[in-house]
Design a protein that fits this description.
- With 106 residues, this protein is an all-beta fold.
- Strand 8 and strand 9 form a beta hairpin.
- The relative contact order is 0.20.
């Protein structure tokens, strides 16, 4: 049988409930427990960085993902489609911009 690692790979995770500016060290899963509309600002684009955002509350308030400074998210200033419980989106950087690489939006 093939070599199977005994140490499963884990992704770092964190929960936020208010507007936040992320750091590269926050890369991983960001659980968003917002009860009001809020903006999450990404760190400067750096190749290989990836964040997955998951809205955990049923409050009908949008979570806006904003690029750092003038950096774009999928060619736009921000991404504001996360507004229902369990909506999620993954953003990844190519080093100069951010891209939505997957999304599950209700």
């Amino acid at each position: 049988m093939g070599d199977i690692s005994k140490d499963p790979k884990t992704r770092k995770s964190r929960t936020i409930s208010a507007a936040a500016t992320l750091e590269p060290t926050d890369a991983g899963i960001i659980y968003v427990a917002n009860t009001a509309s809020m903006t999450v600002t990404l760190p400067p684009a750096s190749a290989g960085l990836e964040f997955t955002f998951m809205k955990t509350t049923s409050a009908a308030n949008a979570v806006t993902i904003d690029g750092y400074s003038t950096e774009l998210v999928n060619g736009a200033a921000n991404y504001a489609s996360i507004d229902a419980q369990y909506d999620c989106a993954t953003v990844a950087s190519n080093g100069s911009a951010w891209f939505i690489t997957s999304a599950k939006i209700a």
